[in-house]
Amino acid sequence: MSRPRAYLAGPEVFLADGAAIIAAKNDLALAYGFLPNGIAEDELNPAGLSPFEFGHRISLANEKAMRASDVIVANLTPFRGISADIGTAYELGFMCALGRAAYGYTNTVRPYFERLRDDYYHGAIARAADGATRGPDGMMVEDHGMVDNLMLDGGIETMGGILVRRQVEPARLWSDLAAFEDCLRAAAVRFGLAVRA
Amino acid sequence: MSRPRAYLAGPEVFLADGAAIIAAKNDLALAYGFLPNGIAEDELNPAGLSPFEFGHRISLANEKAMRASDVIVANLTPFRGISADIGTAYELGFMCALGRAAYGYTNTVRPYFERLRDDYYHGAIARAADGATRGPDGMMVEDHGMVDNLMLDGGIETMGGILVRRQVEPARLWSDLAAFEDCLRAAAVRFGLAVRA
Fold first, then answer.
1. Theoretical Cys-Cys bridge with A83: which of A100, A140, A145, B86, CB 3.0 to 4.6 Å?
2. CATH code at position A184
3. Per-residue pLDDT for A66 more than 60?
4. Is B54 domain-assigned?
5. In a domain, A103, yes or no
6. Rounded to the nearest 10 degrees, how much is the dihedral formed by the CA atoms of B121, A114, A139, B70?
């Protein structure tokens, strides 16, 4: 049997030490029996392209890689705000629509509700006249006990995956791969791969 | 010919006056010849369900509605941060994966790069040793001249849609539907519908 292909989604490409983390994730995926299918953006040549065209070229390459992949493992750790990287969210939806296996992880155990209440609204939420909990801007503060927006948690649930939450030290928010490995281990069982001890 | 179905994605459900805005969007979609396929969450009964189960029920209903839709019109106006609503991003990816027509709009003309540089990093970005522009946290500051993350802009481009940017008064950030209507007008042409003057 050929190795199942795993699309490793996440905002690592933006990190200062992103290349090393991506390499470590690729190595782990290989060790669990998957062929990692992330894109190395520097393989795409921007010469002669406008910034928009170059960005579109990356998008096309990523979509092609997703269509060729059997499973997505999405890093949903909050990125530049209270939610996951929005490009990763797009990719998770893309793979769920294709009916592919979907796994996710986040390196914080704080649910979306807490991040919204404390980090975004600084505690200033209250029950409104309509019975809903709302912020001072009138917006509803949803609490489904989920990691992030219900489409993300719900999509993974529908595709039979798991969404792993682990609390890591702040300095290791992006480099700690234990939760990522939890996903690989679960996906390896699903795909009938020999699982590491 | 039966009316094409339009999935109207966006964070309106969270707004204090969301119901009225959603009703106005549905009416406009109908006026342009589409059958709007948004979900009214209050049609789903949470009785006996855990918060997670109820959230998952909404997710399933939304995914079912998307699979039944011919086109998505996504409100990508920044929501609770520098990017679009993350649930909407998931839905845009979902529809692009299914090969459906994809349109988007945002009620600000400020590109992602400016929001990231000014609103998130407060101007503190600089060229790093590797030649990339980075914030003080070392993260890359991408500039593709796009509305948001390249997967969102790129997906709409690939599906042949348009991504409309309009600047509106702050008080009308969520209620101004001119850009939404631009999308409907373009989609109506694509679907061969009689277009309003």
1. B86
2. 3.40.50.450
3. yes
4. yes
5. yes
6. 80
Nearest CB to A51 within list B13, B66, B143: B143
Q: How far away is chain B from the Cα of A34, in angstroms, using its nearest Cα? A: 22
Instruction: Indicate the angle between helix axes A51-67 and A86-97, nearest 10 degrees.
Output: 40
Question: What pLDDT, on the 0 to 100 scale, is given for residue A184?
Answer: 98
CA separation for the pair B157, B102 (Å, rounded): 8
- Same domain? B91 vs B11: yes
Tens-place pLDDT, residues B131-182: 999 999 999 999 999 999 999 999 999 999 999 999 999 999 999 999 999 9
| Nearest C-alpha in B relative to A14 | B140
Residues of A in contact with B146 (CB under 8 A): 52, 55
Say yes or no for a CB contact (<8 Å) between B151 and A54.
Answer: no
Amino acid A110: pLDDT? 98
CA atoms of B141 and B81, how far apart (whole Å): 16
The CA-based angle A52-A16-A35, given to 5 degrees, is 75
- Give yes or no for residue A27 having a pLDDT over 70: yes
Please indicate whether, in this complex, the C-beta atoms of A154 and B58 are within 8 angstroms of each other: yes
pLDDT tens readout for residues A129-182: 989 999 999 999 999 999 999 999 999 999 999 999 999 999 999 999 999 999
Please check the confidence at residue B7 and state whether its pLDDT lies above 90.
Answer: yes
- Residue bearing tokens 């040793």: B129
Residue of A nearest to B174 (CA): A139
Question: CB distance A128–B157 less than 8 Å?
Answer: no
**Quick one: pLDDT at residue B196?**
59
Rounded-to-integer distance, Cα A140 and Cα A144, Å? 12
**Domain match, B119 and B171 both:** no
Strand partners, A105: A75, A164
Residues 66-105 in A contacting B (C-alpha not used; CB under 8 Å): 66-67, 80-87, 89-98
Residue B9: strand pairing partners: B74
**CB-CB under 8 Å, B59 with A90:** no
In contact, B156 and B100? CB cutoff 8 Å: no
